[in-house]
Amino acid sequence: MYIDEEGVRHFTDSPMDRRYKLYWKRPYSSVYDDLIKRVAKKYGLSPALLKAIIKVESDFDAEAVSPKGALGLMQLLPSTAKEMGVKEPFSPVDNIEGGAKYLKYLLSKFHGNIPQSLAAYILGPDEAIGKDDFPPMVEEYIKKVLYYLRLYQSDF
C-alpha cells in the first residue's frame, strides 16, 4: 500500500512501484501445513478448517495452555485429549491428530453443521445440543474460525 500526493491510498498484491510498502501480512503458518493436510485427509476433514481452528485456538503455539487448562495447538482439555488417545498433548502430531478426531466426532454428531460443531468444540457436545443461539463469546469464536476457514482455503 502507498498513499499518493493527493492522499489516495493504493493497494495491490503485485507491487510494480517501489512506493508500495507491506500493509498487511496474511496470518499464515506453513510449519504445520503438511501435517494438517495429512491428518485432515485421514479423517475426511477440510485442512483449511483444521488450520482455522488451530489459528483461533492457539495461534500456532504448540506450547499454549489456556486458563481452563486446554493444551497445545488445538487446545484440547486433558479429558478430551485422553478420550481421543492423545499421549503427548504438546506434540503437534498428537495434538492435531486428537483434535481432528474430536472434530470429526462433533461433525458427525451435528450432521456436518460446522457452526454447531464449532460451538460444541468449545462448549462441549452436551452444551451445544439443540441450540441455535449461543453466548456472544461462542458466536465470536465461530465467526473467527469461519473467517480463517475462508482465508486458508486457498492454501490447500
Provide a descriptive summary of the structure in words.
The chain is mainly α and 156 residues long. It has a single domain (30-155), classed as Lysozyme (Orthogonal Bundle), CATH 1.10.530.10. Helices cover 50% and strands 3% of the residues. The chain is built from seven helices and two strands; from the N terminus they run ββααααααα. A two-stranded antiparallel ribbon has the order 1-2. Helix 5 (114-123) crosses helix 7. The chain starts with a strand and ends with a helix.
Just give the CATH class: Mainly Alpha
Strand order of the largest sheet: 1-2
Per the CATH scheme, the topology name is Lysozyme
Mean pLDDT over the full residue set:
91
Report the biggest beta sheet as strand number plus sense, adding barrel if it closes: 2 strands, antiparallel
Supply the key terms:
Lysozyme; mainly alpha; 7 helices; 156 residues; 2 strands; two-stranded antiparallel ribbon; 50% helix
What's this, in brief?
The chain is built from 7 helices and 2 strands.
Topology:
Blueprint: E1 2-3, E2 9-10, H1 33-43, H2 47-58, H3 78-83, H4 92-109, H5 114-123, H6 125-128, H7 136-152
Antiparallel strand pairs: 1-2
Helix pairs in contact: 1-2, 1-4, 2-7, 4-5, 5-7
